[in-house]
Design goal:
This is Urea ABC transporter. By secondary structure, the chain is an alpha/beta fold. It has a domain of 65 residues. It is built from 9 helices and 10 strands.
């Protein structure tokens, strides 16, 4: 598989604190990569460096061989990267279908955008809510609308920060299935602390600890790694598949 995104010595410091330390990270086209780690491990900060929410103090990040480190989020998004932060970025005053149509319309004609919106509505299983205002939807449904907006814009790479946060068990399972669906068309990076959710979506897992990559491999491999278990000890139980 060809390399889609790569960082070399990427990091950021706040005063004398090295939140992310010189990380070398390679993501191949078509992957579903999960970034995990205990609280304060640096995984969310690393995500913000990839998405442009933070500017690195050292190192570089390249997407499809183009340097993106230091670019603002909107410019990174225009390159074909869909970004979902922990807070849903949706238009609460518009209905579900219109949110999807607007997302598709960023890079498609009006006719194509309408067709994509209808198709996406079915893929996220919200057809019966097509004309409901997004602001009136439940938390999980609003999250799915945003995932649908990412789907509709047809990005090359999708960056998701804790997409299952605050969801019920059934909502988590549906979100996992939706992310797998997204991965059939796009490369996906998921930052998550919920190990059960990671188990559901599998893929390659990269473990952060103290601002650096501690381990990498399949879900089974990293959860059996003594160093990973030590990092999580007392913070979160690691369950095997």
């Amino acid at each position: 598989m060809s390399v889609l995104l790569q960082t070399q010595g990427l990091g950021v410091s706040f005063g004398g604190v090295h939140a992310v330390k010189a990380v070398d990270f390679t993501l191949h086209r078509g992957e579903l990569r999960c970034l995990i780690g205990p609280n304060g491990a640096g995984k969310s900060t690393f995500f913000k460096l990839l998405s442009g929410q933070l500017k690195p103090t050292h190192g570089s990040c390249h997407f499809q061989a183009e340097r993106i480190s230091g670019l603002p989020p909107h410019r990174i998004a225009r390159l074909g990267i869909g970004i979902k932060t922990q807070t849903p970025s949706v238009f609460d005053g518009l209905d579900v279908l219109e949110n999807l149509r607007l997302a598709a319309g960023r890079n498609q004609s009006a006719a194509q955008a309408r067709q994509t919106a209808e198709q996406t509505l079915q893929r996220i299983d919200l057809s019966e809510h097509r004309h409901r205002l997004v602001g009136d939807l439940a938390h999980g449904q609003r999250q799915w609308v945003e995932l649908g907006m990412i789907l509709a814009s047809k990005p090359t790479l999708v960056l998701l920060d804790e997409p299952a946060a605050g969801m019920t068990y059934q909502e988590v399972r549906k979100t996992a299935a939706l992310i797998k669906e997204i991965n059939t068309h796009s490369t996906v990076v998921v930052v998550e602390h919920d190990m059960e959710f990671i188990r559901l979506i599998a893929g390659t897992v990269t473990v952060f600890n103290q601002g650096a990559i501690l381990a990498q491999g399949s879900f089974a491999e990293v959860t059996q790694d003594p160093l990973v278990r030590e990092a999580y000890l007392g913070k979160q139980e690691i369950k095997h598949a």
